[in-house]
Amino acid sequence: MRDRAAAAPDRAWLLLPATALGLVVERSSGSWPDARLWLPDLAVGVVVAAAALLASYRQRAVAALLGATAVSWFLGTLWAPALFLHVGFLVHLLVAAPGWRLRSRAAATAVAAGYVVAVTMPGWQSEAGVVLVAVGLVAVLAVERLRAKGAARPLRSLALRAGSGLALILLAGAALRTAVPEGRAVAAALLLHQLAVCAVAVAMATGLRRPPVELVTDLVVELGEEQSGSLRDALARALGDPGLELGHLTSLGTYVDADGRPLVLPTPGGARTATYVERDGRPFAVLVHDAVVLDEPALVLAVASATRLSASHTSLSQEVGARMTQLEAVRRRLLLAGDEEQQRLEQRVHGGAERRLKALSDLLNTAACAPDPGGHVLLARQELGHTLDGVRALAQGLHPRELDQGLRPALEALAGRSPLPVTVDVDDLRVDPEVDAGAWFVCAEALANAVKHAGATGVTITARRTGDTLLLVVSDDGVGGAQPGRGTGLAGLADRVDALGGRLRVRSPAGGGTTVTAELPLDRSCA
User: Fold this and answer.
1) Interatomic CA distance for residues 70 and 74, integer angstroms
2) What is the pTM of this model?
3) Element (H, E) at 30
4) Phi-psi category of 253—alpha, beta or left, where left has phi over 0 and alpha has psi -120 to 50?
5) How many domains does the chain have?
6) Is the peptide bond before 98 cis (omega within 30 degrees of 0)?
7) In this structure, are residues 90 and 130 in contact, taking their beta carbons and an 8 Å threshold?
8) Rg (CA), the chain
9) How many CB atoms lie within 10 A of CB 344?
10) Domain limits at 489?
11) Tens digit of each residue's pLDDT (9 = 90 or more) over 360-413
12) Last residue of a domain, one of 262, 297, 314
């Protein structure tokens, strides 16, 4: 996902009205005749506004507080009571980062005191009060940094550094005003204060990380592109909790980690807690983490979604792997079936046509030497007829000529050659030749099994077109007990049907006959 900061130039034009507003404010102030007074003041307001614009791409709460700081800065130029109002917004920004929600009573007290001091400071002008505010700010920021965990820790560290810098500037200004009386240090103190405001604004805007919610929503994409790593590791990095654990529910009702080890769930009220993830309304996974790293509902939803999507990705990968294994097994079976079919064809040629042709050759040789060849020629003609019948039967097994007329004539011819009574109930339809051939071979193999193994007294063949599917059913009244996994006959049929995008099912209860059902797609139907 493209970083939002890369789109910053799209909003850079907003600095133009901010600068124009600043110029109008400075023009209305009494310092306009002396550029050395109003130009630095304008620069501070524009820098803080630019920092707010930059922060808007990552943390809207920080951007809002920086924007309020910029507005209050210009407001203080026009209205003396608002001269230090920006300090209240800066304190709020530093204590509440990366948002505006306050996490403790101490933080709320510090922010409230910051606003009170900012509003009343123009009236009392107490250096002791400035020292108290500076020291109190650093103390509160230090406590918040110690309490910070997870993804918030880096930003709280940044806030502590920026707040410490601001406090030092405030203390330096107070020291200058105390050591150099009669207002001679005002200009230097003001310059230090202006630099401090700019430094805090820029530091907080440039030091922002992407929100944890956005980081978590990118995890599935990142895991899909990478060849290594895990969801647990990615969540630990995004949330800033190295000890985070991810467990999945087993059929025994317990949770295990990625290595299959049992996951110990924390007791309620401890430093670590468990967040449960559901899928389809049922428990699915659990995250064991520090209690503070998932304190936002939106973040919890993002983590749950990432967990579910990652699990779906893993499941699909496993399914693809299983499918590849299955295809490899099908390839091996097809090769084996091809070899066996070649051997059977060789045996049939050797035991049928080749043997008869050899006998025919012997008869012709005998007739050539006999004084009366008539009887030998008659025998040769008979043997030649038998040989032709055998070759036709062999060719019929390779690809029946009746298929050129359609599936129903081919199946009726197949039934006519069977030693068992066969009922054919087939719709008169024309389909793709590959589907025709596949349907015929299903019927031929099922009929051969019924004759050889089932002990059946009759067979029924039905074929119906249902929507875009050819439904083919071959059933017999034999002894049943057929096992598709044994031998290459039914397994080869399953592979043939699967290659056509169809599905083959065999139902063969002991003593209940055998029913072979094939569903073949008719996407390339001719009728």
Assistant:
1) 7
2) 0.48
3) none
4) left
5) 4
6) yes
7) no
8) 43
9) 11
10) 404-521
11) 666 667 766 666 666 666 666 666 666 666 665 555 555 567 777 888 888 998
12) 314
